[in-house]
Specification:
The complex is a heterodimer.
Chain A (H helix, E strand, L loop, with lengths): L1 H31 L6 H18 L4 H24 L7 H23 L4 E2 L8 E5 L2 E4 H23 L1 H11 L1 H6 L4 H27 L1 E2 L5 H14 L4 H21 L5 H15 L14
Antiparallel strand pairs in A: 1-4, 2-3
Helix pairs in contact in A: 1-5, 1-8, 1-9, 1-10, 2-3, 2-4, 2-8, 2-9, 3-8, 5-6, 5-8, 6-8, 9-10, 9-11, 10-11
Chain B lengths: L1 E10 L2 E11 L4 E5 L6 H8 L7 E6 L2 E2 L5 H4 L4 E4 L11 H8 L6 H14 L1 H5 L10 H13 L5 E5 L7 H16 L3 E6 L2 H7 L2 E6 L2 E7 H5 L2 H8 L1
Parallel strand pairs in B: 3-8, 3-9, 6-7, 7-8
Antiparallel strand pairs in B: 1-2, 1-4, 4-5, 9-10
Helix pairs in contact in B: 3-6
Classes of the chains: A mainly alpha, B alpha/beta.
The complex binds adenosine-5'-diphosphate (ADP) and magnesium ion (MG).
Chain lengths: ~290, ~230
C-alpha cells in the first residue's frame, strides 16, 4: 500500500509537468486548430533560459522562472507571427508540416548554439525528503512542482473563465468572424494564446529539467510527445481535459514503471491513448461534435 | 448614416456584388430584400469589413470605412446580427451579452444596458446562466440581437432574422426591431421574407444577382407588381 501511494505521489509529480505542457497544445489547437509540434521545443528553450539564468547569472529560482516564462512567451508569439500566421487560411496540413519543420529548426539551432552535450542543471534548492508516513516520502522539489503547476492551472482557469482576454479567447476559438463583429482583435488574441501557452510550457520545461537535473537540445521531444498524448487523451481543445490528461499520463507512466516494467512504460502510455480513443474518439472530456467545414 | 457606392465584390472568379449602391439615412429602417444567393450576406459582410471589396466605397457617418478591419467597425457605431445568429454556443447567455459590450469601458452603464436587454427579452433573463448553444432558434435570435445592442450602436445591420423561425416569433423579433428603431437606432434589415420586411421598413432595395434592380418607398414596393410576383407570391 505504502509503495502504491508513493507511486501515486511520483505520478502526480511528473503528471503536473505534463499537464502544464499539455495546456499549450490544447490552447493553441482550440484557437487555430493547429497541432503545434514545436511546443515541445518551447519547453526545451524554457529550460535553457532557466538554466542560463540559474547557472550563468545565479539569479534566484523565482526570477529565473519568470524570466524564462517571459522570454518563451515572446518566442512563442514570434514563431506564430513568422511561421503560422501567413498560413492561417491555407490548408491545415501546410501549417502542420511547418510546425514539424519549426520543431527541427529549433532543436538544431540549439544544438548549434550550445552543443549536443547535456548540461547539468544546478541544484536550485537543497533537496529534502519529507517522510509523511512509514515508507512514503515526498521531496520538497515535488511539492514545489505540484503546487506551482496546480497554482498556474487555477490561474489559467480564472483568466479563461473570468477575464476579458479569456472571454475573447473563447469567442475567437468558437467563431472568428463573430468575434470580430464584437470588436475582438483576432490576431492579437491568437498571439496572447501562444504567449500564455508558451509561458506555461517554459515552466513545464524548467521543472522537468530540474527534476531530471539536465538540459539538452532534444529534451523537449519525449515530454512534448507525452504532453501531446495527454492533451488528446483529455480532449484536445478542452482546457480541463489537458490538465486531467497530464495527470492520467503521469500516473500511468509511474505505475507501469513501478509495477510492470520500466521499458514498457511508454508503450503503456500510448496503448492507453489508443484504447481511450477507440471508445471516446474526442477524448475523455471532449464532446463528440462533428467539425464545421 | 451609411452610404455604399459602386461596390464590387468577388469570391475568386465569382462576381458576387456588381456595382452595388445604396444609402441608409439616420433614423430609418431600410430593408434589402432578395432571393437566396442574391448577395445580401455578401453585402453585409463587406460593409462590416469581413470581406474586402475590389472596388467601391463605404462611408459611415461621413467617414470612409472601406478597408477598415472588421474588429474596428463596431467601435465606429455599426453592429451586426449575422445570418444564422452565430451566438457563442459554449458561452452562457450572460457571457454572450458581455461579448457584445467587449469594447465598452463604462462599467456602471453596462449594468444598465444588461437590464435594458433583459427587459426587452425576459426569456434571456431566465436563462442568463444557460449555455447559448442549448437554446431554441428564437431565443438565440433574441440573444444575437441583444448582444449586438450591448454595443450601443448607431446603426444595426440584421441578416435574415426571420430565418427558420415560427411566424409568431418572427412577429416578436420584428416588433423589437421597430421598438429599437424608435429608440433611435438606425436599421438596415436584410431579408428574404419580403412581406414582413417591407411592412416595417421606410425604404427598400431589391437585390438580384448582385445588383439593385428596384428601390423605393417600402409601402409602395409592397404593392409593386414585380415585387408581388417575385417575392410576395
Ligand atoms: N464563401 C463563398 N465562396 C464562394 N462563393 C460564395 C461565398 N459566399 C457566397 N458566395 C456566392 O455569392 C453569391 C451571393 O451569396 P450571399 O451573399 O450569401 O447571398 P444571400 O445572402 O443573398 O443568400 C452566391 O452566388 C453565393 O453562391
Ligand atoms: Mg444570406
Amino acid at each position: 500500500m505504502a509503495q502504491f501511494i508513493q507511486q501515486v505521489i511520483n505520478g502526480l509529480n511528473v503528471g503536473s509537468i505534463y499537464a502544464l505542457i499539455a495546456l499549450g497544445y490544447t490552447m493553441v489547437y482550440g484557437i487555430v486548430k493547429l497541432i503545434n509540434f514545436a511546443h515541445g521545443d518551447i519547453l526545451m528553450i524554457g529550460a535553457y533560459f532557466g538554466f542560463f539564468a540559474l547557472a550563468t547569472f545565479n539569479v534566484p529560482f523565482g526570477l529565473a522562472l519568470v524570466v524564462s516564462m517571459i522570454l518563451c512567451a515572446l518566442v512563442g508569439m514570434t514563431i506564430d507571427r513568422l511561421a503560422y500566421k501567413p498560413l492561417r487560411n491555407a490548408p491545415r496540413i501546410s501549417a502542420l508540416i511547418t510546425a514539424l519543420g519549426m520543431s527541427m529548426l529549433l532543436q538544431n539551432l540549439f544544438r548549434l548554439l550550445f552543443g549536443a552535450q547535456p548540461r547539468r542543471m544546478p541544484a536550485v534548492i537543497a533537496l529534502k525528503r519529507i517522510e509523511i508516513a512509514p515508507g512514503i516520502a515526498i521531496s520538497n522539489l515535488a511539492i514545489i512542482t505540484i503546487l506551482l503547476s496546480v497554482g498556474l492551472m487555477l490561474l489559467l482557469e480564472f483568466i479563461v473563465k473570468k477575464t476579458k482576454t479569456g472571454k475573447a479567447m473563447r469567442a475567437v476559438s468558437e467563431d472568428k468572424s463573430a468575434a470580430k463583429l464584437m470588436g475582438v482583435n483576432v490576431d492579437k488574441t491568437i498571439s496572447i494564446t501562444f504567449a500564455i501557452g508558451s509561458a506555461l510550457g517554459a515552466v513545464g520545461g524548467l521543472l522537468y529539467a530540474i527534476n531530471y537535473y539536465q538540459v539538452e537540445p532534444y529534451m523537449g521531444m519525449m515530454p512534448g510527445l507525452k504532453a501531446f498524448v495527454a492533451a488528446v487523451l483529455g480532449g484536445i481543445g478542452v482546457i480541463p481535459g489537458a490538465m486531467l490528461g497530464g495527470f492520467v499520463i503521469g500516473l500511468i507512466e509511474t505505475l507501469t514503471k513501478g509495477y510492470v516494467s520500466t521499458t514498457w512504460a511508454d508503450a503503456f502510455v500510448f496503448g492507453i491513448l489508443i484504447i481511450v480513443l477507440i471508445f471516446k474518439p474526442a477524448g475523455i472530456l471532449g464532446k463528440n461534435t462533428r467539425e464545421k467545414v | 448614416m451609411l452610404k455604399v457606392e459602386n461596390l464590387n465584390v468577388y469570391y475568386g472568379a465569382i462576381h458576387a456584388l456588381k456595382g452595388l449602391s445604396f444609402e441608409v439615412n439616420k433614423g430609418e429602417i431600410v430593408t434589402l430584400i432578395g432571393a437566396n444567393g442574391a448577395g445580401k450576406t455578401t453585402t453585409l459582410h463587406t460593409v462590416s469589413g469581413l470581406l474586402k471589396p475590389t472596388e467601391g466605397s463605404i462611408s459611415l457617418m461621413d467617414k470612409t470605412i472601406t478597408g477598415v478591419e472588421a474588429h474596428k467597425i463596431l467601435g465606429m457605431g455599426m453592429a451586426q446580427v449575422p445570418e444564422g445568429r452565430r451566438v457563442f454556443a459554449k458561452m452562457t447567455v450572460q457571457e454572450n451579452l458581455e461579448m457584445g459590450a467587449f469594447l465598452r469601458t463604462d462599467k456602471a452603464e453596462i449594468e444598465e444596458s444588461y437590464e435594458n436587454i433583459y427587459r426587452k427579452f425576459p426569456r434571456l433573463k431566465e436563462r442568463r446562466k444557460q449555455l447559448a448553444g442549448t437554446m431554441s432558434g428564437g431565443e438565440q435570435q433574441m440573444l444575437a440581437m441583444g448582444r449586438a445592442l450591448m454595443s450601443k450602436p448607431d446603426i444595426l445591420l440584421m441578416d435574415e432574422p426571420s430565418m427558420g423561425l415560427a411566424p409568431i416569433l418572427v412577429k416578436e423579433i420584428f416588433d423589437t426591431i421597430v421598438e429599437v428603431n424608435k429608440q433611435g437606432v438606425t436599421v438596415l434589415l436584410v431579408e428574404q421574407n419580403a412581406h414582413m420586411a417591407l411592412s416595417i421598413a421606410d425604404r427598400a432595395y431589391v437585390l438580384e444577382t448582385g445588383k439593385i434592380v428596384l428601390e423605393g418607398n417600402a409601402k409602395e414596393l409592397l404593392d409593386h407588381e414585380d415585387v408581388k410576383k417575385a417575392y410576395l407570391g
